[in-house]
Amino acid sequence: MTALHRLPQPLRLENLRGSCLSRPVRRPAPRVLFVRSFTAQRSLKAASPSSNTPSSGRKHITVVNDDGRVRWGALSKTEKVARTTQQTFNLGIVLLGVVMTGAVFALLYTEVFSLDSKTAHFNRATDQIRRDKRCVELLGDSKHIKAYGEPSWSRWARNRIIASSTEKDRWGTEHLRMHFYVEGPKNQGVVNIHMTKRPSQNEYEYKVLAVDVKGEWTLFGGFGHLFGVY
């Protein structure tokens, strides 16, 4: 007699519920998750460099030691402020140097190189005195006649600014007056110049060019010709 095989009985819902409820459910402790997340945040902060601190392996950039080798993107906020301050200061120094250089060139042109400069009038008056025969007789050889400013005990102090003044009258005529000294092998003299320039004129013309050599006056006219000796 063959044994009858028993069919497996269907699982009942009550049995499943009982088996599930009988086993304890393991849940991760929330404190462990909090520690892990906090540790992860600290590791991320340590891995990423801060924008306020320079990268490792170089010095902190300041206004004094910045040489421009470090790229702008690699600088921190404080280092960017330091570089901006340094570059602004350097730009100001360059602009100040340009302005001062331009002022010096303008002064040299108006006082030395311009045809109406006082130095140009001084040189032309000295040349006229050297060419005049009467002045050569009183002062000496024209090659050794010297002209200079106010006399001084020092030889180097003679290269000072020539005393002069400029004014304009009510008719618009400009008056230039100069005063300097001449010296030759024989004598010394004092030179007084009065020049005028009317509004319709482009250049000054002589009114008086007087050379006083120990009481003797030599006067020149507007064109440099000798017209009287006193």
Automatic annotation (TrEMBL):
Stretches assigned to coiled coil: none
Any GO CC annotation of this UniProt entry: TIM23 mitochondrial import inner membrane translocase complex
Listed transmembrane segments: 89-109
Gene3D superfamilies: Mitochondrial import inner membrane translocase subunit Tim21
UniProt keyword list: Membrane, Mitochondrion, Mitochondrion inner membrane, Protein transport, Transit peptide, Translocation, Transmembrane, Transmembrane helix, Transport
Record-level GO BP terms: protein import into mitochondrial matrix
Subcellular location, record wording: Mitochondrion inner membrane
Domain of life of the native organism: Eukaryota
Pfam families: TIM21 (PF08294)
Primary localization class, coarse: mitochondrion
Entry membrane topology: Single-pass membrane protein
Family, similarity comment: Belongs to the TIM21 family.
Assembly and oligomerization: Component of the TIM23 complex.
Its biological purpose: Essential component of the TIM23 complex, a complex that mediates the translocation of transit peptide-containing proteins across the mitochondrial inner membrane. Required to keep the TOM and the TIM23 complexes in close contact. At some point, it is released from the TOM23 complex to allow protein translocation into the mitochondrial matrix.
Record-given protein name: Mitochondrial import inner membrane translocase subunit Tim21
Organism name: Mytilinidion resinicola
Native organism taxonomy: Eukaryota, Fungi, Dikarya, Ascomycota, Pezizomycotina
